[in-house]
């Protein structure tokens, strides 16, 4: 595309730095204005042309144009003539011999001018010999030379370089192919093997621009093809696939171009910060979350297509380029399928006219663990079948039978399911899956698209049956051995989030879908009801474990009454564990594992006792005391002293803590010389999944604030907190803390935290500083704190519930408000779910009474003001 005449005129007349800046500023404004009016390919070509003209003009300005042996060569993306608004400008100055000092000085002035214009450049000065030597050592540099283009200067030297690149034995086709495949595999591993994390890199992620460019680079090297279209003549691309690649390329270019405009710099990762602005620039709307989700669904679907085409074409290339790749022995699997090395191939493409044979292909993959991939010609045939489907694969009775065989197969939900997901067969089978394919969740909790999250969940369930994974999933591995129908667990996993993005309660909508699926596939009524119940209640166990006191018999009784029986408890526990672990790589830790395990065991016991005969709270307290006392007696403690300490504690203390914690607290207090003085202990090793902190002190309204501030200042995360008062006016604080990465606190750090807590109690006037290091990633989510005040079961207490983003110092801010309003904290439950905090406080006013309506209004307003200021 031709540049605007005004740009050309401004550039030709430029003399001073300010002139060049004015010209660049006008050009960038033109780019932005034209983005919505013409194809993006025109604009990225236009920027390359603008940079060409700019470099040539500066070449003349600095008297480099008269150097006869100097060639200015564009390499990399710039060499292809493709430059996004803020893309790096890579060029090489090719010389026949090392330049003189005078020429070097001119080159230095030329480069400095480019820096002064705020251009991101990558440049080098090389002879042909130096360029070839660098090519020998660096495949990335060799790749950039493949796309070199003469901008200005000595065309003879440039032609010599091009001839050397073609004729040189350095990086033969097979070596280059293997190096680029290895480079791609490494790049994919860095992205955790998925294109579907929610802040994808448009260039580097699987299915991104690099995957497209890898195809082009290999084609250029081996086939000496300058364009993708030439691959049609070589028999590697169909016309339809060529058009599809062009469409994907244009879409990725559009998104990358908009990302550059939104970021105002060279940026390839579509960060949350930039997603709303980029979506608006691309025309997806300005309605925040909905606009972003529309844009991201488009992007993820494009990346899926690119990744599939990339795999197919590289497999074709491998057969042509690598010696012996096409000469592997053929092993017949049945009359329609055969295995070649680690790949499965259909013998005759017409086999898929019988649609159930698609699933037979995956049954063979389940039967043969040595099969890891699908042969490229078979991928092509499957793609054609997908495009020609007039309905859903589940419409065919034979497909339903084959699908059920696969889901019941011991290995059916392993690699076979992964490849079905990857190649769009699950989406072709289940219409609801197509709705969640590429569906992102614009929050700080989920790290993957809905379909990829579900795929990871299924993969987690599959691991339960793997004997080598018993140490990773001990209780689940034990439970699944007694499951009569594991396929019901898999189906619950497939449907648990399948209704997301439709509006309404996805659990309820998904349970209806599950019932319909069960009826269509002729499941017994009881099986359909179990799948549906699991989908409807798949959040029940995690919510109960993380938000309620699972040591409270009433909580267990209520949960057990909803679960109803041990069979449903087993299925729900296995589904919940797989769900949480598939949500976010940073979400799972030993603390959450312990909570779920204890809830499972408490509920199992309640169900075995019978809901009509629930365990009485007094029986629970008696049992805990007996077990804790036996631990203490075994450690040589005195029984009378134990009873004396326990006589000061209220009944709620013994329901709130396990016998292990009770004995640990008691042993600490028994070792204190003077129980009238405050004391602190921190566990050296993990207990109940985290590092335990126990503090004992005379009551002080400001103490909670000081303790949480100290823990925050030590860069530890509070996962759980309890505040209980004794009969004689003392207060007990219990915290479960973890490192930022979810690990228990290291023993040397634990002692430092203990000393800091002791100092905070003993010196109330000492200031505690928390370094604010709040990530900007929160600002675009517009997650406003939710604050609810309601009556408590005790008439002289009030309950405050706060849900907010878990920003650094959140608890300190809350405690400061409580302290300013002279509130007494009688109990607290602190819960962190991903990057969301859900905190509950039982409080009273300064007269130890429930909050009045006026006090509630003032505290609500103060909390909202304080917390909103932190999230803006």
Automatic annotation (TrEMBL):
Homology family: Belongs to the GlnD family.
Sequence segments annotated as region (Uridylyltransferase): 1-332
Regulation acting on activity, per entry: Uridylyltransferase (UTase) activity is inhibited by glutamine, while glutamine activates uridylyl-removing (UR) activity.
Protein's name according to its UniProt entry: Bifunctional uridylyltransferase/uridylyl-removing enzyme
The species this protein was found in: Pseudoalteromonas gelatinilytica
Keywords: Hydrolase, Magnesium, Multifunctional enzyme, Nucleotidyltransferase, Repeat, Transferase
InterPro entries on file: ACT-like_dom_sf, ACT_dom, HD/PDEase_dom, HD_domain, NT_sf, PII_UdlTrfase/GS_AdlTrfase, Polymerase_NTP_transf_dom, UTase/UR
KW Transferase (keyword) present: yes
Ranges where the ACT domain occurs: 692-773, 799-872
């Amino acid at each position: 595309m031709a540049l605007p005449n005004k740009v050309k005129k401004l550039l030709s007349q430029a003399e001073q730095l300010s002139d060049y800046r004015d010209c660049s500023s006008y050009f960038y404004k033109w780019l932005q204005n034209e983005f919505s009016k013409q194809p993006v390919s025109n604009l990225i070509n236009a920027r390359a042309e603008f940079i060409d003209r700019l470099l040539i003009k500066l070449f003349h300005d600095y008297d480099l144009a008269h150097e006869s042996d100097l060639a200015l060569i564009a390499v990399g993306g710039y060499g292809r003539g493709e430059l996004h608004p803020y893309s790096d400008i890579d060029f090489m100055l090719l010389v026949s011999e090392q330049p003189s000092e005078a020429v070097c000085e001119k080159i230095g002035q030329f480069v400095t001018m480019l820096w002064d214009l705020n251009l991101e450049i990558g440049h080098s000065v090389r002879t042909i010999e130096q360029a070839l030597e660098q090519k020998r050592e660096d495949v990335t540099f060799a790749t950039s030379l493949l796309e070199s283009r003469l901008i200005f200067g000595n065309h003879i030297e440039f032609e010599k370089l091009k001839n050397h690149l073609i004729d040189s034995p350095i990086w033969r086709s097979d070596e280059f192919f293997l190096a680029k495949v290895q480079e791609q595999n490494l790049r994919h591993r860095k992205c955790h093997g998925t294109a579907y994390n929610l802040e994808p890199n448009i260039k580097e992620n699987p299915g991104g621009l690099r995957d497209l460019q890898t195809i082009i680079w290999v084609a250029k090297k081996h086939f000496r093809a300058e364009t993708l279209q030439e691959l049609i003549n070589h028999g590697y691309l169909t016309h339809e696939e060529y058009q599809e690649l062009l469409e994907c390329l244009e879409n990725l270019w559009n998104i990358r171009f908009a990302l550059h405009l939104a970021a105002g710099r060279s940026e390839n990762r579509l960060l949350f910060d930039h997603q709303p602005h980029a979506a608006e620039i691309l025309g997806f709307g300005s309605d925040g979350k909905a606009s972003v989700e529309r844009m991201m669904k488009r992007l993820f679907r494009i990346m899926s297509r690119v990744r599939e085409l990339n795999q197919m074409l590289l497999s074709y290339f491998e057969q042509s380029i690598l010696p012996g790749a096409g000469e592997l022995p053929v092993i017949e699997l049945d009359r329609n399928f055969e295995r070649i090395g680690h790949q499965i191939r259909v013998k005759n493409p017409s086999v898929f006219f019988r649609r159930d044979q698609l699933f037979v292909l995956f049954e063979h993959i389940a039967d043969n663990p040595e099969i890891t991939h699908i042969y490229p010609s078979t991928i092509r045939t499957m793609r054609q079948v997908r495009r020609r489907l007039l309905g859903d694969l589940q419409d065919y009775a034979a497909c339903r039978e084959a699908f059920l065989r696969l889901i019941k197969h011991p290995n059916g939900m392993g690699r076979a399911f992964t490849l079905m997901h990857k190649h769009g067969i699950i989406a072709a089978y289940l219409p609801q899956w197509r709705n969640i394919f590429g569906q992102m969740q614009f929050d700080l909790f989920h790290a993957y698209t809905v379909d990829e999250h579900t795929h990871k969940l299924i993969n987690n369930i599959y691991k339960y049956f793997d004997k080598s994974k018993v140490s990773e999933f001990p209780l689940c591995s034990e439970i699944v051995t007694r499951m009569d129908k594991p396929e019901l667990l898999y189906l619950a996993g497939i449907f648990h989030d399948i209704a997301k993005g439709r509006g309404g309660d996805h659990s309820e909508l998904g349970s209806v879908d599950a019932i319909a699926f069960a009826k269509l596939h002729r499941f017994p009524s009881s099986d359909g009801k179990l799948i549906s119940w699991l989908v409807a209640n798949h959040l029940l166990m995690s919510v109960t474990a993380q938000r309620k006191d699972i040591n409270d018999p009433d909580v267990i009784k209520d949960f057990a009454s909803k679960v109803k029986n041990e069979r449903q408890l087993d299925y729900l526990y296995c589904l919940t564990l797989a769900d949480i672990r598939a949500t976010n790589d940073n979400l799972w830790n030993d603390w959450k594992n312990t909570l779920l395990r204890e809830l499972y065991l408490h509920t199992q016991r309640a169900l075995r006792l019978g809901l009509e005969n629930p365990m009485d709270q007094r029986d629970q307290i008696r049992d805990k005391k007996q077990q804790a006392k036996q631990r203490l007696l075994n450690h040589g403690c005195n029984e009378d002293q134990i009873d004396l300490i326990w006589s000061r504690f209220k009944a709620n203390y013994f329901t709130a803590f396990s016998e292990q914690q009770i004995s640990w607290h008691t042993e600490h207090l028994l070792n204190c010389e003077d129980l009238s003085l405050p004391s602190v202990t921190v566990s050296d090793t993990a207990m109940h999944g985290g590092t335990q902190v126990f503090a004992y002190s005379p009551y002080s309204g400001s103490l909670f604030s000081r303790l949480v501030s100290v823990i925050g200042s030590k860069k530890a995360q509070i996962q759980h907190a309890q505040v209980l008062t004794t009969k004689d006016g003392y207060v007990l604080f219990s915290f479960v803390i973890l490192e930022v990465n979810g690990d228990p606190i290291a023993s040397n750090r634990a002692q430092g935290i203990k000393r800091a807590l002791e100092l905070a109690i003993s010196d109330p006037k000492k200031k505690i500083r928390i370094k604010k290091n709040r990530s900007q990633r929160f600002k675009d989510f517009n997650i406003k704190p939710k604050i609810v005040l309601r009556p408590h079961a005790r008439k002289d207490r009030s309950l405050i519930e706060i849900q907010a983003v878990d920003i650094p110092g959140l608890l300190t801010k809350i405690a400061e408000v409580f302290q300013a309003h002279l509130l007494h904290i009688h109990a607290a439950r602190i819960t962190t779910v991903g990057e969301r905090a859900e905190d509950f406080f039982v409080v009273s006013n300064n007269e130890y009474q429930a909050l009045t309506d006026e006090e509630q209004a003032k505290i609500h307003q103060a909390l909202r003001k304080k917390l909103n200021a932190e999230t803006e």
